[in-house]
Write a structure and sequence with these properties.
20 strands; Rossmann fold; 358 residues; 6-stranded mixed β-sheet; 2 domains
Length: 358
């Protein structure tokens, strides 16, 4: 078993005005691919480094399997780590780079060769085993770094933004390879990124972080479709979720400015936020009953679709429309949200009113 239990962990750096990690509790299941997602400075790398033993928490405890590892050095934790930089040895061949950890453990030569060749096969590195890093592309060097980690057969694999130094096309290719690899090796994996596409495509679950705290832990599509807070909805998705300020009205409706929108009867009194994804809004150039009248700001053709920016009662809304839907700036359009895709939050704290739907 290589589940990870993080209990009440906090960390404040000297001179820091606020904790980098603030009383975090998180359980990562055995064999799970957990993604820590959030903006720069949210504490995700600090949390990863504490799991690795590269940083020590001020309070709380960390367990891997049936062992508490809070105070253990990295070499005794049964972990391997892949860093943002390739961190390969330029004077060693690909084979010797991958074999480095095994050589340090003084493993028999036959075992070293067998395990290196197996790891190289998983990462499509067999043709490059006798080359040096300078003779490889960026994507190949990163594959070497991953192979060097998995060849150790760690209980836990930790990855700190390993794709950030690759260009867009290599990132797309390597992301698919990495997902396939992790499903094959079945190692408990913790992956840090600020890239929401990586998080959604790779993770079994995502922990969304902000200012040292975890705001939501859930499966990727649950985080995308049912954000726990306004921040989660606005951070996940491209474009991000639209949020319109509204207030409770009578007859199962809310008021958005002077316009009315159908709403659940269970909504509380007070100011609300209505969340809706851009792809869950139907745009039309003719008036429709129940639709919100908006004014077009700009239309961006993106090939498979057009991204329409409009304003509803002065509030900006992004809409994914057909690629043949063209309107000009200033023209009126009518927006019809899918009622079952509306998400309701309190305006005061931006927290979801979970369970309230039509």
């Amino acid at each position: 078993m290589a589940d990870i239990r993080i209990e009440g962990v906090s960390k404040t750096y000297p001179g820091g005005k606020a904790p980098a990690v603030d009383n975090i509790n998180l359980t990562i299941r055995d064999g799970e691919f957990m993604v820590l997602l959030g903006p720069s400075g949210c504490g995700k790398t600090t949390l990863l480094r504490m799991v690795a033993g590269l940083e020590y928490p001020d309070s709380g405890r960390i367990s891997i399997g049936d062992r508490e590892v809070t105070d253990l050095p990295p070499r005794k934790r049964g972990i391997a780590m892949v860093f943002q930089s390739y961190a390969v040895f330029p004077h060693l061949t690909v084979f010797e780079n991958i074999a480095f950890g095994l050589r340090m453990q003084k493993r028999p030569s036959m075992e070293v060769r067998a395990r290196v060749e197996h790891a190289a096969g998983l990462l499509q590195l067999e043709p490059y085993l006798q080359r040096y890093p300078a003779q490889l592309s960026g994507g190949q060097r990163q594959r070497v770094a991953v192979a060097r980690a998995i060849v150790m057969e760690p209980a836990v694999l930790l990855m700190d933004e390993p794709l950030s130094n690759l260009d867009a096309l290599l990132r797309l290719q390597f992301r698919a390879e990495l997902k396939k690899l992790v499903s094959e090796v079945k190692t408990t994996t913790v992956y840090v990124t600020h890239d929401q596409v990586e998080a959604l495509s790779l993770g079994d679950r995502i922990a969304v972080m902000r200012t040292g705290q975890i705001l939501q832990v859930a499966k990727p599509m649950q985080v995308y479709d049912q954000p726990a807070t306004e921040f989660v909805g606005s951070f996940i998705g491209n474009p991000p979720m639209n949020f319109l300020r509204a207030s409770k009205a009578v007859d199962s409706q809310v008021l958005i400015g002077a316009q009315r929108l159908a709403a659940p009867t269970a909504l509380p009194e007070g100011e609300l936020l209505v969340g809706i994804r851009a792809e869950n809004i139907q745009a039309s150039t003719s008036a429709k009953e129940g639709a919100l009248k908006a004014e077009t700001v700009v239309v961006e053709p993106l090939g498979s679709h057009n991204l329409v920016t409009a304003t509803v009662e002065g509030q900006v809304v992004k809409v994914v429309a057909r690629n043949d839907f063209f309107v000009e700036s200033g023209m009126p359009i009518w927006l019809e949200p899918e009622s079952d895709k509306l998400r309701w939050l309190r305006a005061a704290d931006g927290k979801s009113l979970a369970g309230i739907s039509d």
